[in-house]
Specification:
- The chain is α/β, with parallel strands linked by helices.
- The chain is built from twelve helices and ten strands.
- It has helices at about 1-10, 25-35, 50-55, 65-70, 75-85, 100-110, 125-195, 205-220, 250-265, 285-290, 325-355, 365, and strands at about 15-20, 40-45, 60-65, 90-95, 110-115, 225-230, 235-240, 270-275, 295-300, 310-320.
- Strands 2-1-3-4-5 form a five-stranded parallel beta sheet, sandwiched between helices. Strands 7-6-10-9-8 form a five-stranded antiparallel beta sheet.
- It is rod-shaped, with a radius of gyration of 48 Å.
- The N and C termini lie far apart (about 135 Å).
Amino acid sequence: MHGPIARTRLLGTVRVLDCGCAPHDTDAILCGLRGAGWRIALDRAERATSAVRKLRGRAFDLVLVDYGTLGARSHRVVRAVRAASPHASSVAVSVPDDVAAIAQLVRAGVHDVFPARNDWTVPELVECIRAHASRAVTSRLAHERLTVLESACRRLSRERAELEAQVLQMASGLAAAEQAACEREERAALSSEFRTLVAQETDIDSVISIGGHYLVARMGATNAALFVLDSDRWRLGGYVRDDLARRAAGGLLDHIADTWCTRIAAHAACVRISPAEPAPDGWAPLSGLLPGRHVLAFACYGQEGALIAHPVAAVVLFRDASRPFGPECVRAAEALGPAFGASIDRVRRVLSRARPSWPAEPPGEARGTD
């Protein structure tokens, strides 16, 4: 009793489709399979059309086709087996002793042919059917395992691609964060260095002179014009020449002070103009003042004693077309602008303390006395 159960669990289930076979033939074949330890999942089809429909609906291991019942339509069933369940074994029974009929079945893809009136208890026939069933089940299970493995491989490939994308995104984020940190460090170093240079200066002209030469040292050879806002009016505070003398640039610098410094101060970001590219909106006239030159303009803001930063200076750098202002120059301008503005505010605060202003009215009137 325990032997068949153990064999049944070992061998598993064979899926059988009965296409028009006589009940005694089917029962005898299935009895032989059960004796070998197989569980049977049986489905029946009386006509070829229903058999084809069932074959398209699920996978079978063993298909029994009765040639005596279906006749030439058996070829259609056998072809459907080959198309829908390539692993299955198709067996034709009740086949007449006709070479032409057998040849047609073989061409259709049948795996075995049995004549009519077989004794299915004969060991050779039983073993033949068992071999067909075993081969088909083994092939189906291998196909199912392969399908599972392929599905797992596709899933792992998708997960790997997702992980790679996440890693690339994280690496890109880290690289961007590192670059931003380096830029902040660079700006802080520039600002600290400039503040240290002018820390002991108590004259605005000295701060402007040091600022102009420091800009040239950091950005390379360039013409640097530094404008200061005094009593709501812009004036040229300092000029460092490269290839354009102060005398030759006099009218140009005065025009920039009268017309463009207010716009530069109102513009929050640096303005970079290249002769090879269209000027930003509204800045084409400034580019026309300096034809064939690269221009970098920015404002310097202070905030001493005020809640909102206010412009105290404007810087216009320009040089020939062979030496453009790169992104590093923009970063340097963004770092030096606040430092320059804060230094000018500091000097003005020191000067205001050194030269205090007193009220014009007599002390007695200020105290409200007669």
